[in-house]
Amino acid sequence: MVAAAVWFVLGLVLLALGGDSIVKAASGLAQRFGASPFVAGLLLVAFGTSLPELVVNVRAIVVGAEDLALGNAVGSNIVNIGLTLGLAALAAPLLVRARLLSPLLVLLAVAGLALIVFGLDGVIARWEGGVLLLGFVGVLVFLLRASRRETEPVREAIAGYAMTRTGLLLNGLRVLFAGVALYYGARWIVDAAPVLGAGLGWSPLLVGLLPVAIGTALPEVAAAIAAARRGQGDMVLGHVIGSSLFNLLVVVGGMAALRPIALPESFVKLELPAAIAFVLVLYPMLRGDLTVSRREGGILLVAFVGWVVLELALIAG
Predict the structure, then answer these.
(1) With bands split at pLDDT 50, 70 and 90, how would you rate the model's confidence at 114?
(2) The pLDDT value given to residue 66
């Protein structure tokens, strides 16, 4: 179990390095081939940080560990809002200026509700996975259209996030490094996670929900805290909401589109409602004074700790 823990941590380090490299490469290549810094930044803010989690889940699906991938996809959403956003707001209040974040949060709640409805019979069918993937296309269309109504300071901040060197050779090397790092990082995590779970007496679903979801989120937590201290509240919220939408619509939807996936009863009755509950707690924070305060960050963090304690208590019981 000790060896598995070491490989797990090494896998997390490689995922962090590979994720950072692929985001920079994607931004540089997009601008190299004509995309505006604003559009590149918008897509990177919304979905760029999801790539390491996606690679882990693809690896899990390939080796037949669907429960691990499912747990990671939904567990990451709870970690995103409860842990990442909570700690970032504790570090510095998050000022929210982007108008499209509140509608995206509503879409996130709708996506979670759709998953619950689809999973009432215990299975997400292939056609239902296709519906989720189409939902992601709709989110992209909405995102690009709604972004045109953002204020100039918001557009400049998003464009600034995407600024990086656009040299073809440099970004080619970034892609190569990211590919190797993400591959081995995901491989070591997926191989080590079941060993850790067996040692703790946890199911693959719970391993995905807790250690894998929390571990893969740690680089994003550090980045969110740094962004909060720089006054980039829109970036922090954009990462959290966009990544969560990606997890539900693309990761879970893509899994189901490939082959039907069984949903444990507890998943429909506990984990998915918990993910929606975090969204409902966050929504009035964005609609009120447009600031996620330290007190509100503390509420999110306490709620996250409460969820973890509940999950562990259910296992112990």
Answers:
(1) very high
(2) 82
Say what the pTM is: 0.89
What is the phi-psi region of residue 12: left when phi exceeds 0, alpha when psi lies from -120 to 50, beta otherwise?
alpha
Q: Is the pLDDT higher at 207 or at 24? A: 207
- HEC string for the chain: CHHHHHHHHHHHHHHHHHHHHHHHHHHHHHHHCCCCHHHHHHHHHHHHHHHHHHHHHHHHHHCCCHHHHHHHHHHHHHHHHHHHHHHHHHHCCEECCCCCHHHHHHHHHHHHHHHHHHHHHCEECHHHHHHHHHHHHHHHHHHHHHHHHCCHHHHHHHHHHHCCCCCHHHHHHHHHHHHHHHHHHHHHHHHHHHHHHHHHCCCHHHHHHHHHHHHHHHHHHHHHHHHHHCCCHHHHHHHHHHHHHHHHHHHHHHHHHHCCEECCHHHHHHHHHHHHHHHHHHHHHHHCCCEECHHHHHHHHHHHHHHHHHHHHHHHC
Instruction: Quick: pLDDT tens for 246-267.
Output: 889 988 898 889 888 888 887 8
